[in-house]
Specification:
By secondary structure, this protein is mainly beta. Helix content is about 10%, strand content about 45%. The strands form nine sheets. Strands 1, 3, 4, 6, 7, 8, 9, 12, 15, 17, 19 and 21 form a twelve-stranded parallel β-sheet that branches. The longest helix has 18 residues.
Amino acid sequence: MQYLNKNLTVIVLAILGLGLVSIFTFGGFKNNFTGKSLAATVVAANLSSATNFSVLAALSTSSAASGTTTSGDLGLSPGLAVSRTGTWTVGGTEYFGPSSAAFNAQADALIAFNNLVSETPDGVWASASPTPGVWNIATDTTFAGPTLTLTGSPTDVWVFQIGNDMTFTGSVVLAGGAQACNVFWEVGRDATIGAGSSFVGTLIASRDITLASGATVNGRLISLNSSITATGAAHTISGPGTCVAAPTTETINVTKVVTGGTKAVADFHLFVNGSPVTSGAVNSFNAPATYTVTETPSLNYTATFSGSCPGGVINLTLGNPVLCTITNTYTAPAPIPSPSGGGGGGPLISTPVPPLISVLKIPTPLSLPQGPGLVTYDYTVLNVGTVAMNNVKVTDDKCSNVSFIGGDTNGDSKLDINEIWKYHCVTTLTQTTTNTVTATGVANGITAVDTAEATVVVGVPLVPPLIHVVKVPNVFVLPAGGGAVTYMYTVTNPGTVPLSNVSITDDKCTGLPGRVTGHPGDLNKNNLLESNESWSFTCQTYLTQTTTNIGTADGSANGMTAVDHSLATVVVAVPGLPKTGFPPEEKNESFKNFLKTFGISY
């Protein structure tokens, strides 16, 4: 509708009974849940002289004898001082009448209201934890609580467009840095804040606003055409004030030290909250915040943390740069006796070392609760073996345009052990989809394979889980006759919901002594795999022939199960055969059948 821009004319219409009713009709909605920083800029600018008002109405303001306390100004226009009744404790200044500052504030509030009306909605408001964005209900609405949770950054914005009347009972909770100054409510007719409620944001209503007994507001109440009434027990209206600046940054330096064994610093991939960092490099991160330092596993090396990162956890604060040192100490493994009492010992001459590759896939977003939309898949590919790989390929069975982003630091087209290669792919999903990415790389004539699965839920407000496992054997080549092998599994949660019932199985390392054991890494001892934890498992066995085995990790959350596989090959030397190191055909059927499920020929 076309809103009038003169408050006095609006009041005359209201008195005549014509009123002003906002009717919202939207033909569809978008599925990009990124918030609207532009909305924050426009609305904040158009509030202008209304910014300092905690209470601003057209006709009257009324408070019960128990009293209402405001932190900012109180104003009426064209209403006069006589229309401010009841007990008020005003932290700012009071303004009354058409010639006061309240008149200009009403005009600016009307501009802000119309800007809120014009915002294109991201969808229908139907969630108690809506993502940043513009959410719309074209008719009357009642929120009965108990809690509306707004989780976002200090710059994220929420706009709630209510076409007719709104009744809100419950609490608005801000999380993750979200600020009250970035929450806006545009109500086409009357608004009621229920008894005992804790409300947040700037509420601009076309008509009456009622604040029921004991309700509190971290924000502003603005009635463009009518009155504001506070009833019952005492109230507090503490205007949101101005937005504070987004957190600034502080530095973290993660330094790796390796003691003993044959590994070097470059053999360990380091991460801060999942983002790769280089040993000894200084990186800036938002502060204040909490970060977790992790690394890719290396069997027989024990990591200890020193400096300002006990247990790998950093509480980063402004003005306090962090030096975190990870020392990896090698401990020789105890030998496992041969089941037959014999052992290997044959020559390793000309035996190829097999490669080992790992791929991690993360979709954004994990859920499209409002229906079909775009999803971006980010893939991270690591070389967790000991030899560089060429001919690296990444394919996804449900996303056809996988693009290489970067990571080949020396430009040799080989995935070296100290490199992290990044890929991504964008597609539109119309239904809940589970897809599989396959990464392959070749070294010494042997192909390394790894897969990763992810599910994106469409049309349901449900967040699916993710899980990731990396498996590394302590040896890649055994002498003729075989020998002992210990596999180390590192399981992480790259998703957003904790995982329960986490388990590891291996198709070639089962039973005694080949039993998967663990798990250190459950930092809070709640038996849930959190996103900041890294759980470790081991399995010992004895191999007498070249073997490719498959480790499988799974975990549950929100009624769904996440699964990930990790494949590794250990070569047993076979003197005299021209293709030493390749898995014998008759012994490798399970591996080939597994790959066939992903359309891979081996």
